[in-house]
Specification:
This protein is mainly β and 158 residues long. The chain is 10% helix and 33% strand.
Length: 158
């Protein structure tokens, strides 16, 4: 018997899970200016190493400065325009639109801003662990942040 056959009885209840959009859990740590909702976590599906959910930032709104401790975060922009500020004084800024991914390393102070005054910003969020770490920070941001273009070792900025 193959491994697939020996485990197939468990797969019906412990295999793939589909979480309908209307069944997300809003009982999550919140940061002022945004609404988080969990789709994938240990309590809901038994996930061991990741957390995933949605984030909505209302038109013309921004979050408070915060970080997520040792967690890595990935934000995928579904609809709207995200303006991200980061740094000890939120002195750096970059924007992302639909289809763009944003990576936030551990302990990086950051702020999510909806760059639109008329439309909500809707994103999917994935974190590297189950801990719901949100450390809200009291930061006096610089008035004019420095725009930072995307650069990586493989795809150089023109």
């Amino acid at each position: 018997m193959t491994d697939a056959q020996t485990h197939s009885a468990d797969w019906k209840h412990d295999g793939v899970r589909v979480i309908p959009a209307g069944n997300l859990d809003t009982n999550t740590p919140q940061t002022p200016g945004m609404n988080r909702a969990a789709a994938i976590n240990f309590a809901r599906v038994g996930a061991q190493k990741i957390w995933a959910g949605t984030v909505t930032i209302h038109a013309n709104a921004k979050t408070g400065a915060h970080h997520h401790g040792a967690l890595e975060s990935v934000i995928y922009v579904v609809r709207g325009r995200a303006r991200m500020r980061w740094g000890d004084r939120l002195q750096f800024v970059a924007e992302a639109g639909p289809g763009d991914f944003i990576y936030v390393p551990p302990y990086v102070p950051h702020q999510e801003i909806n760059a639109s005054s008329a439309e909500p910003l809707e994103c999917v969020l994935v974190r590297s662990d189950q801990d719901p770490v949100v450390v809200n920070l009291d930061i006096e941001p610089v008035e004019k942040p420095e725009s930072v273009p995307w650069v990586d070792p493989i795809h150089r900025h023109p």
